[in-house]
Design brief:
The protein has 23 helices and no strands. By secondary structure, it is mainly alpha-helical. Among the domains are: 90 residues; 126 residues, no CATH class.
């Protein structure tokens, strides 16, 4: 019999005695010795042995003080093979000194546990989760929804954090009036382009200067005027992602081959593809993509309707574009009935005049 097996059997005998007759101090000492035994042999233990340790830790944790549980958490948190039920128990502890080390470091915690904790525990617990090496979009969704300013900032600054489009939408809304958060969100490489444009359109001069400084090769491409912001920002590395460039190339190819029509635009819109929809409507309206972009991200839906009327689109396609825009931008949804009435009254000649005005604004902005 190995010395490790003998030590384990002796310790289990001691455990039974400590639980049955021992003082708190003796139980704490027993916990320390069990923890030492596990930490020193964690790499070699089988699943069956780890399950045994799980049972032992569960028994001891019920009879020890907070400081001893906190020490146990800090020792087990970095170990990838730590007993899973013990780690879960520690993670759900209301005392942050106990839960914190496990929530921030333990690889034993899956998304389900992290999400459950983030939905029900304190801001201190959320802060601990926000520091993890890797955070999935499902977890950051909850952090963005429930977290205070400090938690949000920490999550956005975490390079290992992923965000869903819903999470990014909430962040962009939350960043309004918060220059530090707006800058951090704007610098996230996976921020969808339509949300980048929305962020930029509402950004202060300070935020635009910071984004400009972060991309010195394109300094001066984030000026003050909102329309000029959306026009010029499209050439910035931070805004023009590879995905956007591919979408624009696809639309250009369809247009040059004569295959870009209203049905294709409606298909893009119904699929929630902002870049493809925007580039398509720009091509059909015969305006630069940047002009269409500035009109697409306006608060009201008139810009979309003007572009669509010039392109000769039916109301069903316009409705699909407006619905896509409302869903992606996460703002107050448009009054569809009122939009339909406006679109049907809008004359193509009037739409052309308004569009010429937009193009003049874009051309005049650099000179101004």
């Amino acid at each position: 019999m190995s010395s490790k097996s003998i030590a384990s059997e002796n310790l289990l005998d001691e455990l039974q005695s400590a639980l049955a007759h021992g003082t708190v101090a003796r139980r704490v000492e027993t916990l320390r010795r069990v923890t030492d035994l596990f930490v020193n042999g964690a790499v070699d233990f089988s699943d069956e042995q780890i399950t045994l340790f799980d049972d032992v830790f569960q028994c001891l944790m019920m009879h020890i003080e907070t400081s001893a549980r906190a020490l146990l958490a800090s020792r087990l948190a970095p170990i990838d093979t730590a007993p899973p039920r013990t780690i879960r128990t520690l993670a759900f502890d209301d005392v942050i000194e106990i839960a914190g080390p496990v929530l921030s470091k333990s690889e034993r915690l899956d998304d389900e546990i992290l999400i459950e904790t983030a939905r029900s525990k304190s801001q201190a617990h959320l802060m601990a989760i926000s520091t993890r090496r890797v955070l999935s979009g499902a977890v950051t969704d909850v952090l963005v929804l429930r977290g205070n300013d400090e938690v949000i900032q920490n999550t956005v600054n975490n390079p290992g954090a992923e965000f869903t489009e819903r999470g990014f939408t909430r962040l962009v809304s939350r960043a309004e009036g918060d220059d530090n958060l707006a800058t951090c969100v704007g610098l996230r490489p996976t921020l969808p382009r339509h949300l980048y444009l929305k962020l930029l359109a509402k950004a202060s001069a300070t935020v635009r200067a910071r984004l400009e400084a972060a991309d010195p090769q394109h300094a001066g491409e984030v000026p003050d005027a909102v329309h000029e912001v959306t026009r010029r920002a499209r050439t910035s590395r931070a805004a023009m992602s590879q995905q956007t460039a591919i979408a624009h190339a696809l639309v250009k190819s369809l247009f040059e081959d004569g295959r870009l029509d209203e049905h294709q635009v409606a298909s893009f819109a119904e699929g929630g593809k902002f870049d493809e929809t925007n580039a398509s409507i720009a091509a059909l309206a015969n305006v630069p993509v940047a002009v269409a972009e500035s009109m697409m991200v306006e608060t009201r839906a008139e810009g979309v309707m003007i572009l669509a009327k010039v392109s000769g689109m039916s109301w069903s396609t316009v409705k699909a574009i407006i619905n896509m825009r409302d869903e992606l931008m996460g703002g107050e949804p448009a009054d569809i009935a009122a939009c339909k009435e406006t679109y049907e009254r809008l004359r193509p000649s009037t739409a052309q005049q308004v569009l010429r005005f937009h193009r003049m604004q874009q051309s005049a902005a650099p000179a101004a």
